[in-house]
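Handoff note, outgoing to incoming analyst
You'll be picking up this chain. Sequence as last confirmed:
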Amino acid sequence: MKRGFLLVVSGPSGVGKGTVLHDLMNTQKNLVYSVSATTRNKREGEIDGISYFFIDKNDFEKMIENDEFLEYAHVHNNYYGTPKHFVEKKIEEGKIVILEIDVQGAMNIKRNTDNGVFVFLAPPSLKELKNRIVKRGTESVEDIKIRMNNAIGELKYIDEYDYLVVNDHLNSAINSVNEIINAEKHKVSRSNYNFKEESEI
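Most recent structure output, in case you need it:
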């Protein structure tokens, strides 16, 4: 059985990461979504244990002390983290584990693993990104300002990633990430192929 790998996907808030990854889960075999833990409040339509594990600050900090996260970060005045046990178990089972995380988390994982594939999903422009966030209707004017400032900072990390996908047209972005996954699955380093020369041909 081939060993799986981490598919780390980052990009500014509002760029469409959730939409792209949702489609991948319906079209790619062997993918599992690593649900992150967070201390932020639930948005309308989000479900605990599916969208995120919503926990309070004290419990999150206890998990940090117990080394229960593959990575964690403090973003937008809240904690976000990736529970370690689930990710490691699925990779050993040959699964491709999708981690949708911010730049801080991705850089932490990059320092701590050699089995990650890092994809940055970028907007076609900052103007278009702001339009998407406004249309979402879940953030205040101040929140939008914070997210746009964070986006500018996040875009500076593109060179740290293996792949860049611009989400200009949704179907094109989805196809690009599919191509990345298919190429990575066939890397020799992930193969368990064992060639044995036969004595007679």
